[in-house]
Design brief:
Blueprint: H1 2-17, H2 32-42, H3 61-75, H4 80-91, H5 105-132, H6 143-154
Helix pairs in contact: 2-3, 3-4
Length: 155
């Protein structure tokens, strides 16, 4: 019985800890197919206030406006791609959670690998030059210096 209660408590806590969708009942479309498309599109759109949260999970007012805009465009007959293009034209590519790898964005996509290759190249050349460098000459202490050192160590 105790194990059943603990399992039930765990199940309830998991359900309650799941992220709650911020979609309000008045936003939901009557047509379930259109609503499903709206949810699919919303997964790929970033809340501009919350940054790395999609608009379905955000409670921000701007996210609500975006959800309504997506649903409005779907009701007007736009395809999923047309809705996303409309939102991107209006708010910029930053609104996409997964930006495209074209145009100026290719710099962002390729900057990491390019910097890694450059860093490895610089590190390799540094190690090669260091390996070829001559051993530093270690000068021995003169008799005066040895005597002074012995004097300091005895104090």
């Amino acid at each position: 019985m105790k194990q059943l209660l603990s399992s039930l408590a765990l199940a309830v806590s998991l359900v309650l800890s799941a992220p709650a969708l911020a979609v309000q009942p008045d936003e939901i479309l009557v047509d379930p197919a259109l609503e499903e498309r709206a949810r699919e599109i919303s997964k790929d759109l970033r809340c501009l206030v919350c940054r790395n949260e999609n608009i379905d999970d955000s409670n921000a007012e701007l996210a609500r406006d975006l959800r309504l805009l997506v649903r409005e465009r779907l009701v007007e007959g736009d395809s999923n791609g047309e809705v996303i293009d409309y939102v991107v034209d209006r708010y910029g590519e930053y609104v996409l959670l997964n930006p495209t790898a074209r145009g100026a964005n290719w710099i962002l996509w390729w900057a990491g690998p390019i910097m890694l290759v450059l860093g490895l190249g610089i590190g390799f050349s540094f190690l090669r030059r260091r390996e070829k460098a001559a051993e530093p000459v270690v000068a021995e202490l003169s008799e005066e210096e040895q005597a002074r050192l012995k004097e300091i160590m005895d104090e």
